[in-house]
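I am still learning, so would you mind making up any protein sequence you like and the tokens describing how it folds?
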Amino acid sequence: MTIPTDLVRVEAVIRPFVLDDVKDRLQELGVGGMTVLEVRGFGRTGGRSEVHGGSAYVLDFIPKLMVHVVVPAARAEEVVEAIRMAAATGRIGDGKIFLVPVLDAVRIRTGERGEQAL
């Protein structure tokens, strides 16, 4: 078996309210599927202060979504740009996009591998 190395997982940490725009843009590009996870994180935004029961405290971890999309490496840049344009508000905390090489993909139902499994 030859392991294809021409697949990339695009991981985007985004604000929850931009998910529909990101999904719509990826569908326009013909991206066949995506996985969305509810995550929490912090970075430059540093959290936010809230009052609960009369006491002030800082929420360090802000709710975000992580979108995973696996695409052929040749399409990775257009997917990154589509996500970036759909998710950008111009404010700190818009998120990050990571590119991760994928060794292989296997469709469970048929056994197809590589790009055919996407």
